[in-house]
Amino acid sequence: MFSKLLCTDVLAIRCIDNLIFVGVGCSLYIFNVNTYKLEKKINCLYPYNIHGIIEGPDNKLTVFGANYFCTYKIYYEQETLIIKEDLNKKELNDWIITVKWLLYDGHNYLCVLLAHNNVCIYDIFNECYQNTWCEEKCILYAGFILNNDKNLIIFSGTVYQEILIWEVNYAIETSPVLHRLQGHNGVIFSVMYDPIAQFICSTSDDRTIRLWKINNSKSKNWKNIDIKLVRTMFGHTARVWKSIIKNNIIITIGEDSLMCTWSLEGKLLNKICAHHGAAIWSIDVSNDNKIIFTGGADGAVHAWPFVNDYIQKTVLVPKTNAYTLPKYVCYLNSGNLLIFYENGTLFIFNRYYNNVEESLYLEKYSTYCIMEVSLCHSHICFASRDGYIRIYKEIKVATNKKLLQILEEKIMESQILSVQWLENNKLVICGMNGILKIFNFTVEGSFTIQSVCVLPYSRERWLTAAILYEGLLICGDRAGNMHIFDLKTYVPCSETNKKPIQTINKVHGKIGIQNFIVVNSKLISAGRDGMLRFYELNKHKNTKLLYILHKQKMPMDWISGHLKSFDDILILGFKEVEFVIYSMIHHRILMKIPCGGGHRSWDCILKNNLIMFLYIRNKQVYASDFSLTSFTLPVLLNGFHTKEISCINPISKINQNNIFISGSEDGTLRISYISNPLLNNNIHTFQTLNIFDGHISSVKFIACLNLQFIFLCNKYLIFSGGGRAQIKVWEIDIKDNETFLHNKDISCHDITCHMLYGFDQRRKKQLHESNHSYNMQPETRYMDIGIYYCTTNFYYIILFVACADGFIRVFLYDINTKSISLKISSKCVDRCITKITVITYNEKVIVLIMSTDGICRFIDFTDTISKIIEFSQIEKQQFENYKDIFITKFNLHQSGINSYDIKIIEKGKYLLATGGDDNLFNIIYFNVQLQNKKMEIHISLLSKWSTSTAHVAQITGIIFHDKNTIFTVGMDQQVIMYHYNYNNDILSVTILKRMFTFVTDIKGITSWYNSKNESVVCVYGKGFEILI
């Protein structure tokens, strides 16, 4: 088997000419900087990670990691990139910190700084080397080599919080320390020197960036150079890994997922959360200093513009209105600004010529006014206190743009509270008592009321958002409720009894719904809780109803709008005092603009690939423009979960795409697919189709149930659970796409959720009512799940959940009512139950549990399940004690059992493989049978095989495979393939193959078959790796 796809820490990035070199594991990816396309992929240092990539002379490239390095020659031949190995993998006796090429007397040498503060000068031609030591022998975490007129100056970042500067002396074996730079309060993680800016920049464990100035840099003797600390910069919230200086700008990356840009004066210019919370390991800048490339712990490589490409300036206000304040602002389709002042004056401002093109005084709207611009930004509607509306259209007169009034009518008998545009010529007006009037108009000035609806009673009874969706009027009110009206059933004659056909309460909390979006036939609502909630339209008894899907958390507090580009949806919102633009395709923040918050009027449009943002701040009007293309650079490598992956389950195989669902410590579920490689590159790729939020803590397990075999539909029930004693039920529908899968092909319904002690809000209320200040029962963690599908009632699914407090909690899920309830809490052991599985024999249901004491226990739950199904309507849960009621138990390990797999050989005969903290790998062969007239279950051990020498660390993943093979994987990052055989009551196992995986902190292993009927093995933990 060979590694075909790896997604893990990106530890090295280097830009050389028009190529980008990326190191992931031992693989070197080579991208074209102009097209962002993958040109080549080669394996360099197996089984070691690539930690650095250095450019050399004569088109040479050095790749190093651990204590190994190798060199390549790179050139083009008939427009084809050729990578040829120039020097095969060489081993040194210490860890390599950094490498520098040196030309001396016409020969090329490699200067290698090692981890114990010594330098190795390696002769490439003769393949020999010479060592030079610093007089202070200490451990280094960082270093930099400066070629100073054939002399090598070494900057050593030590674990003792200081930077040592020393010069390599070829004549002697030990060189003295020239300078000690002290000031950091932690380990030095990076140090670099910029000879142009004449600064030394260092980063540390103390979360600071320190800038040291070289005062008399003209001196070639570094012993006489004066070095002074001039800046200490704070901005990161965790360890700072690396810094670079380009164009007098400092760029730093850290463990907090932040990429910060600083001026040389120490001012923080910009801060970007670049990898969704995952640490950023590597960074480099393109040769033209226009694009920054970052690699993170999520396995992604992102491209960013080097500078903030937007211009912010104040729009000049006419002197006649110097004492009035702007109330509303918006953009017109021409790009002109529309500014409405509190005294009722309206200005059209030409930003290009910086002058006022037209001014109007709206006396009727001077004391109370609501202004809304149409979706096309060509029409503007004004609404008054006495129920009047006035609509203007922007027209061109000669060379200027003017506003033409096309309509003014009294449409309400009360004050107008809200105006929402549904189409370019259709609006919905909200008056007192929740009355809604939907009307359209023509440019000639005629209008027609099409429908009249009434919002249900609420405390704040007016519209905050509205949209037309598949013939329905979707309304969001100030109380946070969503109301759905069928416009075809209403006639414009009466204002009574116009009730919504459906109401969804408190969709985004109590504050209100701010925006609706329709994307790929799905409806999305957004509000001030920072959530996007997804819906689909279903027909129920000839009535159209909204079907609630899932929700997705946005990196902002208040979502207020959206923009649609050619292939992306941009979410607009606010986080504290910043305006935030988020890309749904790239899953990242594109821009943050300090604007003071979203409580004042603002507008944002996309015109000619230029995002234009207009807002009021400090009683002034500001406008900011920036190019969309510079901020939507493509992703070179797709990222995955930001923390350790706890579980991966294959779902389906559609049109040669292998689909799987994963859960992680980051609390999210992801549906992804791996596409088969194209014939020309033989490179597998993966794509995340959707990310589902909903867990408030880590996800420890996922179980999938295919409903196709039961209800003949292409849907899957997903059960996920983990931290905070939370279990969630999802329903996923995957549409069959003939070409490529997209996120629009996935529909996920967040069906229900169960928490053992209720949600936080409910728990606080219970504690308040009971006058307790704390809960006596601590929350447990759900560790694993076993599923039993009821044969007597197709709608019932029994869930056995293994818990960290030694309980098995039995849930009943009803497919028909979409409800989950806790039925039985069974105390089994006084240890954490790590794994659980369900075995059925005849009509018996046997639950096998594994715990941290290394014992496998078999428990008969047949009678318990019968009671649950018989009394399924009773809500009360029962407590049962199974501590001493076991069918049998096998003492297999000295400590906890981390992994297992079970295989049916024939009826009643099973193979069970387990792996534990004691490095022991067990395979047992046991028999299940019924004895005597009482049909009691008897389990007997037929054969056993074990070894503790295959792995040198905990075994965390086991899976049975075809042709009598089995795979194990452990924390030692070894994937071992075995062959097992059972003859004459003897179980024999032999090792067939060993492989090294670059996935760290391994949590498990799974497998499936691809479209070519090839076996696919997936190892997961801190990332994942596909072996075929």
From TrEMBL:
Q: Which SMART domains match?
A: WD40
Query: What protein name is recorded for this chain?
Result: tRNA (34-2'-O)-methyltransferase regulator WDR6
Kindly report the protein's main subcellular placement as a broad class: cytoplasm
Localization annotation:
Cytoplasm
Family according to the record: Belongs to the WD repeat WDR6 family.
**What Pfam families does the database record attribute to this sequence?**
WD40
Keywords in UniProt for this one? Cytoplasm, Repeat, tRNA processing, WD repeat
Gene encoding this polypeptide? Answer: 100577610
Q: Which residues form the WD repeats?
A: 181-222, 273-304
Q: Does the keyword RNA-binding apply?
A: no
Please give the biological process terms from Gene Ontology that the record holds.
Answer: tRNA methylation
* Listed GO CC annotations: cytoplasm
The superkingdom listed in its UniProt entry is Eukaryota
InterPro entries on file: tRNA_Anticodon_Mtase-Reg, WD40/YVTN_repeat-like_dom_sf, WD40_repeat_dom_sf, WD40_rpt
Keyword Ion transport recorded: no
